[in-house]
Amino acid sequence: MYRITKEFHFSASHQLIGLPDDHPCARFHGHNYVVDVELASSELNQIGFVRDYNELKSLKTYIDDTLDHRHLNDVLGDDCVTAERLAKHLFDWCVEKWPETTAVRVKETPKTCAEYRPLAYTPVEARQ
Asked: Is the dihedral angle over the CA atoms 31, 79, 81, 58 positive or is it negative?
């Protein structure tokens, strides 16, 4: 299986409603997010790519236009925008465009990471 990843960055705020008042994430706060999208295929295209990295520019555009310097609770319409939920949101967006998408990882800090990866992966070739 061939795998590629591409990294994207953005800054945004959120607040996790429902946590105890003394929990730091209950307060309005922000992160410098790092997002990794992973694509995989058992075969390469005619040029030798899983997917041309250039094609992933539309994710940068989506992130810049929709998420960057925004309040994620407002953008996603959710009172509990966790890194896990953000990873799933971005995975759903990516897999619509690139069926080879296998996972999305979201880092809120250099030491924390959440990932959404479906339990079973079926290569794109087998889905057609």
From this structure: negative
Find out whether 104 and 94 touch, Cβ atoms under 8 Å. yes
Supply the pTM of this predicted model.
Answer: 0.90
CA dihedral 88, 91, 93, 98 (to 10 degrees): -170
Q: What residue ranges of the chain have pLDDT lower than 50? A: none
**Per-residue pLDDT, 79:** 85
Kind and range of the H or E run holding 7: strand 2-14
- Compute the distance between CA of residue 23 and CA of residue 15 in angstroms, rounded to an integer: 11
Confidence at residue 114, expressed as pLDDT on a 0 to 100 scale: 98
**Residues facing 4 on adjacent strands:** 39
Check residue 88 and give its pLDDT: 97
Report the distance separating Cα 48 and Cα 58, nearest Å. 21
